[in-house]
Design the sequence.
């Protein structure tokens, strides 16, 4: 399983190995990152699983989808490497990934 | 103290979206008192929306729709008492009685017991093969029955009925949907949206009949065999799904003296009329600015979550009135409908885009202000419309009607 490093909303940094083969959102939720609300359950209907990927890793991820792109626009904290974590499958490809959970809104 | 009694700082009644989120929000607000959730179902708190979508279709299993993994509740010291119901509340003593006879003394109680599926009152409404869809158990029973069904009758053309129809039709089953009103989604959507979904379901082979009422359900050996309409017509089927709304679960609160009418009444801080008792989620009737100041109950994840946060804030010393934008979604086939705002009391609509292209939005206006928008495969509109909902500015309707102009670029109407 890949190793992922997360900086949460309080600035705390923690590294974990996903237990799931689902999406990055599910992996973060399972690993106890409470900042990830993921209200729509990974359905591309909200943006409450927004994460900011370390730009170095952006190229390893699947392309940004149209709906995902539109939903990310609802966040005041969107940056170029913002993604919805529910749209990123967990694969070995994510090994070494670093991400930040931005504030809500 | 009575026998079998225990004490807890916050007792949450209901382990659905609202109850679970109340506990989660309390802990993320650094609340360190004791918390117990009493839930009627035996499952860990899970998301209800997939029950009529990905869970019913089999695309997602229970572990993928859990609101939090099992370890979370233990790690956060949130006691889960599952498979139990609160049957009585004694507000003066600050105690609640459970159906196992135990008694919990609370400092604060958060009522988040949601509702139960409304059943058909007619003859045959309780036969085997007649389903409702509210809980994981309901979904499992329905899924098992669907696997051997050929002809499915769905009663009710609301979101639950339509989403289940999409799943059943997707499996190649013969599906007939009966709606008492003269259009689908009559309670919440415009005629344009209703007719669009009607046409889509028909295109996928679903038989839709409007303005029809069920007289009775007929059984053979205790199991559904056919449905009789008020017109006298009889339709054979193997399975009936009834999707005609919920009845809020508030009986113990009402018996304890809380003001109730179509749910339990709460103020802007989600307080009931009883001391130290809050109510949130599907069962909480509240005055909503987005409904033009009407008292409404909202059955949505958004409302459950945001009301949970309101109460968690109150209990940690922040009195921030509930005032969140209502939003909602529905998935049917490859159609993603996203709604923001409440269409309640709208007096005009504007359609952006072309329903024939299967990508369009319907904007609901009241006195020239945008009160809601239904977005079908138009996520961009959904995101950009938020700033108009509840805002004190009226859009230029000609620009609004032009799908080439992003909603965020639509100018205000000249006064």
Sequence:
């Amino acid at each position: 399983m890949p190793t992922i490093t997360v900086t949460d909303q309080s600035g705390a940094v923690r590294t974990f190995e996903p237990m799931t083969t689902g999406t990055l959102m599910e992996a973060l939720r399972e690993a106890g990152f409470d900042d990830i609300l993921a209200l729509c359950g990974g359905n591309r209907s909200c943006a409450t699983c927004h994460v900011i990927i370390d730009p170095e890793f952006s190229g390893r991820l699947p392309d940004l989808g149209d709906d995902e792109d539109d939903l990310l626009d609802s966040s005041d904290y969107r940056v170029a490497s913002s993604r919805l974590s529910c749209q990123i499958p967990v694969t070995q490809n994510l090994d070494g990934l670093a991400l930040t959970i931005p504030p809500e809104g | 103290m009575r026998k079998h009694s225990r004490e807890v700082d916050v007792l949450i009644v209901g382990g659905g979206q609202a109850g679970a989120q109340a506990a989660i929000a309390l802990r993320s607000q650094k609340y360190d008192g004791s918390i117990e959730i009493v839930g009627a179902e035996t499952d860990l708190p899970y998301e209800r929306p997939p029950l009529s979508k990905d869970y019913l279709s089999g695309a997602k299993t229970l572990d993928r729709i859990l609101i939090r993994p099992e370890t979370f509740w233990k790690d956060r010291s949130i006691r889960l008492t599952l498979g139990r119901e609160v049957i009585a509340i004694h507000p003066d003593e600050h105690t609640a009685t459970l159906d196992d006879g135990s008694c919990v003394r609370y400092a604060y109680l958060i009522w988040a017991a949601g509702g139960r599926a409304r059943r058909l009152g007619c003859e045959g409404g309780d036969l085997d093969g007649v389903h409702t869809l509210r809980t994981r158990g309901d979904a499992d029973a329905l899924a098992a029955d669907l696997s051997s069904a050929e002809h499915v009758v769905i009663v009710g053309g609301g979101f639950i009925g339509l989403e289940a129809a999409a799943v059943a039709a997707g499996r190649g089953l013969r599906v007939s949907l009966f709606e008492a009103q003269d259009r689908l989604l009559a309670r919440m959507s415009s005629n344009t949206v209703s007719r669009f979904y009607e046409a889509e379901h028909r295109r996928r082979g679903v038989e839709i009949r409007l303005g029809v009422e069920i007289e009775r359900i007929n059984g053979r050996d205790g199991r559904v065999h056919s449905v009789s309409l008020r017109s006298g017509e009889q339709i054979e089927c193997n399975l009936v799904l009834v999707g005609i709304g919920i009845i809020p679960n508030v009986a113990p609160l009402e018996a304890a003296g809380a003001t109730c009418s179509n749910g339990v009444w709460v103020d802007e801080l989600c307080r009931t009329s009883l001391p130290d008792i809050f109510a949130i989620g599907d069962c909480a009737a509240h005055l909503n600015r987005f409904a033009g100041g009407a008292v409404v109950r909202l059955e949505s994840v958004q409302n459950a979550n945001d009301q949970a946060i309101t109460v968690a804030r109150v209990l940690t010393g922040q009195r921030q009135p509930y005032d969140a934008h209502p939003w909602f979604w529905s998935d049917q086939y490859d159609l993603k409908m996203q709604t923001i705002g409440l269409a309640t009391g709208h007096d005009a609509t504007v359609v952006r885009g072309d329903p024939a292209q299967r990508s369009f939005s319907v904007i609901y206006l009241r006195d020239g202000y945008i009160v809601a928008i239904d977005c079908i495969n138009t996520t961009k509109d959904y995101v950009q419309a938020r700033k108009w909902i509840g805002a004190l500015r009226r859009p230029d309707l000609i620009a609004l009607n032009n799908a080439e102009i992003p909603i965020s670029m639509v100018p205000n109407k000249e006064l």
Q: What stands out?
A: The mean pLDDT of chain B is 96.
